[in-house]
């Protein structure tokens, strides 16, 4: 399916599909038990859940860093939990962009080097960028699109940036080379309300442009209305404690 | 993914602790190589204390003993060699030259060596170096003395100074030959051999100062003045030992056998090189202890590096999670840490080598003058390269620990950082 068709017929293809997934940390009680969760291509999903409910753990499963004890994790049609370790890592490098809550960047690299690091780990993404121009130019384009002046901050050390700026650099890194899926784990929790709104706007615009699927985690429900869909972890997770589900239901 | 730039930049980011680690490593590597170098140079200069002499001959005792008293001036001869035997052996057809040595007196802690002026032309040390005069010349007058470099420097003598020889050696000097003072006629260049710590006079002079002595004491009332002694027959009756140079190397064993089977008196002839090796074998234990200690120092420092790397791991867990999220395999993380350890070890080794040459360049003179150890600024030897390789290997092994820990963390943490 080409890009224009995807715009007309959104959500036809599934990017993420979880089936009968069970996960427990070593020596702990089952944390996740999800019967089914699909996320369509280009969809922007807001994953909500209380602190400690297992949101980050779920993202680790999606990214292929963690393996479920049972069930299947399909990303872009691949059962990634059946891949071997190095293959999963390779798959993640090629197809998934990741944004953490904070401290996303390596302190010993410049802003531009941090962004290009994603391409260093993935020949595929590097190649995708090279088809249209140089790596540095694409990094600068993304910075500009995320409202950062490349000439001003491109060569700067990461430590000289504000938290909000750092988070946008992290988004640029997650998006470079157009991976199909971007996973963001509470990327706005360290930002104030204005910065948060602006951040979301820029993130959405860039995801839209590349047709990227976005899984966005937060426990702050006020952001939910801006997404295509809101998923409450407590509602799909059969392993959730009754107290938690009750509280989630009560909201 | 090429890890080298990443590892380099990460190290540069922690440059202060990295510099400290590299510096201590450099010191230890410098120590290791320094010990090795001093050791081999000492051994070499030791093994070539006497290099142009084919045989050393003395009264029959042990070879090491003979070498010790005749060349190193350590201990005393149990017996002397008669002048008669010396003359006969020196006249053997295979003998090219001979130099007699007569010991027993001293000057302020330095041995007095009675010999002939031939000593200065025939004695060889190191790579067949001849003795050369820093000032003055060999004996021309009966009461002329030639000083070794160290004796002259430590005692502060110049040409023309008068010196008085004492009877006996070391602290056991009984009396001084005050009535027959010597004049410093020459001062030798430093050699790094026992020659430096010797005072040379002619054999005749040894006879002259003992003219009124018998059986180790001065004959009462029989004073022979310095000038009167000049008129006596100063041919010695005995000497302590002598050096022989042969016309051809091939004759060495034949002459040695002839001397060892000499009928008139029991004599011993030794090959200096062989006996020097035997003697070194005795010193070798201390030498190995030194090597062991310096190797241990390197290991201790590497353990320090290991600790430094492991302590950074906690604060770098975030860094590892970021790399994992970008697609780094746990093996990549492992490799990154191993590479860092190897880089540290390599920098330490290189800096250590640089430090060694710097230290050698600055202490070369002092080592030669003070200890007679001649150290050349030659490129690293094969043994030194093996040692450096050993340091790198040990660094790599030490790096396995933080690398394995980081590998385990990378697998256990996932993308959530738990501290
Ligand atoms: N690496 C780990 N090893 C073992 N247990 C873990 C690990 N990471 C998380 N857990 C446990 O799993 C549970 C869920 O943690 P998780 O981080 O997924 O929650 P979360 O929903 O992301 O919370 P928050 O909103 O605070 O980020 C917690 O009980 C936590 O203790
Ligand atoms: Mg979390």
Describe this protein's structure.
- The complex is a heterodimer of chains A (251) and B (419).
- Chain A is α/β, with parallel strands linked by helices and 251 residues long.
- Helix content of chain A is 41%, strand content 20%.
- Chain A is built from 11 helices and 9 strands.
- In chain A, the strands form 2 sheets. In chain A, strands 6-7-8-3-9 form a 5-stranded parallel β-sheet, sandwiched between helices.
- In chain A, helix 8 packs parallel to helix 9 (193-210).
- Mean pLDDT of chain A is 86; it is low at 1-11 and 244-251.
- Chain B has 419 residues and is an alpha+beta fold.
- Chain B has 2 domains: 3-46 and 285-415, no CATH class; 55-270, no CATH class.
- Chain B has helices spanning 4-13, 15-47, 63-70, 83-90, 118-122, 149-155, 203-209, 226-230, 252-260, 272-315, 317-325, 330-371, 382-413; strands at 55-59, 81-82, 95-107, 110-115, 124-125, 129-130, 133-136, 144-147, 162-163, 166-167, 182-188, 198-202, 213-214, 217-218, 238-239, 241-246, 267-270.
- In chain B, strand 5 (124-125) and strand 6 form a beta hairpin.
- The two termini of chain B are 28 Å apart.
- Bound molecules: adenosine-5'-triphosphate (ATP) and magnesium ion.
- Magnesium ion (MG) binds next to helix 2 of chain A.
